From TrEMBL:
This is Methyl-accepting chemotaxis protein (MCP) signalling domain-containing protein. It comes from the Bacteria. It comes from Brevibacillus centrosporus.
Length: 111
């Protein structure tokens, strides 16, 4: 009987030790689960931020494209204005020469 009692006590100690081990495993599993949840939340945040970044990059690219197009239009308008100014200058010079010749012709007439 004593032997049986001792065997029960030893078994009880083993069960208690196993129970503590299982409790520690449970705590570790819960901790790992919590860490996995936090990593998942962080990954979702990174994904949302990445989507925002891509959207902002697309908007910036469109703005840059519009600005480049507008710059080309301004450059073309400037070239046209320069050409028109040169034509007007040449026409003014031609008119000045014509006026000078007309003035010389008028001097020939006497009243």
């Amino acid at each position: 009987m004593q032997r049986l009692k001792q065997h029960v006590l030893v078994s009880r100690g083993g069960v208690s030790s196993a129970s503590e081990s299982f409790q520690q495993i449970l705590i570790a599993v819960q901790d790992v689960s919590h860490q996995v949840n936090r990593m998942n939340e962080a990954a979702q945040t990174i994904h949302r931020d990445t989507e925002k970044l891509v959207g902002n990059s697309d908007r910036i690219a469109k703005l840059a494209e519009t600005a480049a197009h507008d710059t080309q239009e301004v450059a073309a308008a400037s070239q046209e204005q320069t050409a028109t100014t040169e034509e007007m200058s040449a026409a003014a010079e031609n008119l000045a020469q014509m006026a000078e010749r007309l003035s010389e012709q008028i001097k020939r007439f006497t009243i």
